[in-house]
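Student: Hello, beginner here. Can you help me understand the protein record under this note? Any guidance would be welcome.
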Amino acid sequence: MQALRANGRPQGAASSRPSRTPLRVRAAAVYVPPSQRLAANELGALSRLSSIVPDTLLLETPVAPKAATVSSQVLKGVLASSQLGLKPFMTAIENSLKYDKCLSLSGDARSSCQLDKAMANVGAMLAGQVEGRVATELDPRLANDKDALVARAHSLLALYKENGVQPSKLIFRVPATWAGIQAAAELEREGTATQVFHIYSLVQGIAAAQAGVSVIQPNVGRTRDWYNKHPGVIRDPHGPREDSGFASRVDPGLQLVRRLYGYVKARHPKTQIMASGIRSKDDALALAGCDYLVLSARVMADLEGSPTLQGYNSGFSATNSADDEGVPRGLSPDALSDDDEVPALGQVDEEMFKDGLGLAASELLAAGVAGMVADVKTVLPYFSELARSAE
């Protein structure tokens, strides 16, 4: 995600580091006559169906954050911001320059150590401010090196432990490369929760679920954008090609989330789905019921400004479950269409993974990793400038 939250922490996985299906405990429902309900908005109603993860650096959001993310992009945002409320996070980053274990190194090793220390410092602050886990990004320059990714996670775990943060409050983000998924599988076997993102194809999500990953994060907007820029590419094997003269009504981004949701809930219930790249309130409402929705400040404001019928019912008409929830449930394991069903796949190996990516996911994954690497290269000079100013 590039989900960014300056006072919230990510609950990358909503359960506490289980190896079995997480249990959800719900309070017994108490009937309230429609005429006695308070007026509600769509954001409040949606947050009762899905955990909302704010994709923002703002210090206040309309809903209490369920998760927070620490990444190079987050650090860059803090360092480049003049918001007074971010000053404590700036101090946490500056303190990484004084860490003795990093000072004993030189060159790239020192800067990489300081980068991880800064993320652990900021993540530790967020850990005390949100309900769930803090998602920490592993260095994207290692995206195709399984062993290096695992080693980096071990290093970050040690840094967090020094800051008093237990592994149960953490989840590590890795891009959905083959090496990234294999690294996540090893970490999960060790008891460390992982979140795999930059997912643009079914094979990426299914491979990650088979690996026991806690959270998979498909991206709606980027997937949709790619197909919009490539008319003529088949969006749905059962639908028309756009160059046939008939516009396809399939939204590849939303369809990807729906299909992964159905597949994972049926076959890998431990894994949860976090939909990102949500561009509008219509996108968000279409995915109501997904485990996590990453929403921007603009989308949250649109939802917050849209009232529901709750509280306006006279009480004389019968209500259904949609009325009770305030917004229709877009995703449910028991209510998926035939178009969203995916045949069972055997165990995905590396050859199957590469063949199944397709052109869209191959290009988007490469671009996503390249963007993350660019964020790292952009933020590292800040460390050099801070070190010089401290001399």
